[in-house]
Amino acid sequence: MTPSNIKIKALLRGPNTKRTLELIPAVLYGFKTENISLSVDKIEFDKIFKQAGESSLIELDIDGKNITVLIHDVQEDPVSDEIIHIDFYKPDLEKKVSVVIPLITKGEPGGVKNYGGTLVKNINDVEVKALPNNIPHEIIVNVENLEDIGDEISIKEISVPEGVEILRDPDEIIITIVAPTKVEEELEKPIEEKIEEVEGVGEKTEEEEEEEAPQQEE
After folding, report:
1. What is the C-alpha separation between 158 and 106, in angstroms, rounded?
2. Most buried among 24, 39, 92, 168, by the most CB within 10 A?
3. Residue 58: which domain range?
4. Residue 11 sits in the same domain as residue 80
5. Whether 51 contacts 6, CB under 8 Å
């Protein structure tokens, strides 16, 4: 295992620990780990979250002991968008885990530059399965070869690192160059992905944390 170079110090949090603006409440759970209540520095976490997102391994320093984890879930205040709670998940590094990875487009399509078309991106992220140490931070999709109106890219045409499997239909179209007059028509198509409503914001129960933890192979 190659240790992550992204590290953050966490403080143990007890039932009588007072909340402060400088610290974010957090919880650690996962492989061979009992639930541990923690707090992390807000400024430091903001920095590493921009680097790691929810797909890169980081090192959590708890009283001098380093634990390799994923940032599994981040809860934000619905009004201020401030982070109010974090779930850290310790995976089994020897088993594959499923996580969601952002798709980032790179380059300028010829169909846009030369013919005035518009690039329509149908999805912004994909779920992948890989060993925790092989999970990419993001997947880059080069769109420079989309030379004409109607050119498209499917899941099977995406290049991913060895050992990484995309958990979607290989023939699904994710990017298309459409004529300007068809942009509104494309955007009005129903979104297939499910959007769950947020009914409340707060710390999860242990049962909820276990149910929502990343799925790993038996």
Report:
1. 12
2. 24
3. 7-91
4. yes
5. yes
Report the Cα 77 to chain-centroid distance in Å.
19
Please report, for residues 22, 101, 153, 174, 189, the alpha-carbon distance to residue 148 in angstroms, rounded to integers and kept in the order given: 51, 28, 12, 16, 22
DSSP code per residue over 31-72: TTEEEEEEEEEHHHHHHHHHHHTTTSEEEEEETTEEEEEEEE
Tell me, what CATH number does 22's domain have? 2.40.240.10
Structure tokens at 217: 């192979």
What is the Cα–Cα distance from 198 to 58, expressed in whole angstroms?
Answer: 27
The residues facing 96 across adjacent strands are: none
N-to-C CA span, the chain: 20
pLDDT band at 195 (very low <50, low <70, confident <90, very high): very low
Query: Are 171 and 126 contained in the same domain?
Result: yes
Indicate whether 84 and 147 sit together in one domain.
Answer: no
Calculate mean pLDDT across residues 103-117: 95
